[in-house]
Design goal:
The chain is of the alpha/beta class. It is 35% helix and 18% strand. It binds iron/sulfur cluster.
């Protein structure tokens, strides 16, 4: 079976981040996977109807796993509670992954949505802490293996292993 990968749109050069920029991750593997039609390029926040640019948002009181249970929230830098649209973003990421048969995800780290290794600490001071964003948490809960962009070599190995197992 051919592995399919949900990829954060901002990693692929789409200017969808809160600040109206992309976060391109130029890598030969991504280009090859794109040509092999393995990539599902998706921005959960844009899918949930958020504007670009938008205010930066950070998880408060816990990470994305906690936000999914109602134990943490997501606040914009002006103090607005935007937990509900971010939860919608997470569910839309899961829907995109499941509808397209993705077993893996490569997501932008640090985001309250896509982060999978680290998030910001909720005080808008540029400090990161270990944790996951809401979409990464939900994808993992549904068996999708999530990698951050700096873990691309690990994802390449994992996909080779997955496709050998599937033969
Ligand atoms: Fe990038 Fe994910 Fe934020 Fe969209 S939600 S801009 S894909 S990090």
């Amino acid at each position: 079976m051919k592995a399919k990968i949900l990829v954060s749109a901002c990693l692929m050069g789409f200017k969808v981040r809160y600040n109206g920029r992309d976060k391109p991750w130029v890598a030969a593997a991504l280009e090859r996977w794109r040509q092999e039609q393995r990539l599902v390029i998706h921005c959960p926040e844009l899918a949930a109807g958020m504007d670009t640019p938008r205010l930066p948002a950070e998880l408060a009181g816990g990470d994305g796993s906690a936000a999914l249970t109602g134990a943490a929230c997501i606040l914009e830098s002006d103090g607005s509670d935007v937990t509900q649209p971010y939860l919608l973003a997470a569910w839309l990421a899961l829907k995109a992954a499941q509808e397209n048969g993705c077993q893996f995800a490569l997501l932008t780290d640090g985001s309250p949505t896509c982060g999978s290794q680290k998030i910001y600490d909720g005080h808008f001071r540029g400090v990161t802490i270990p944790g996951v964003g809401v979409a990464a948490a939900l994808l993992r809960q549904h068996g999708i293996e999530v990698f951050a962009e700096h873990q691309l070599p690990g994802l390449i190995s994992r996909i080779e292993e997955f496709e050998q197992e599937e033969r």
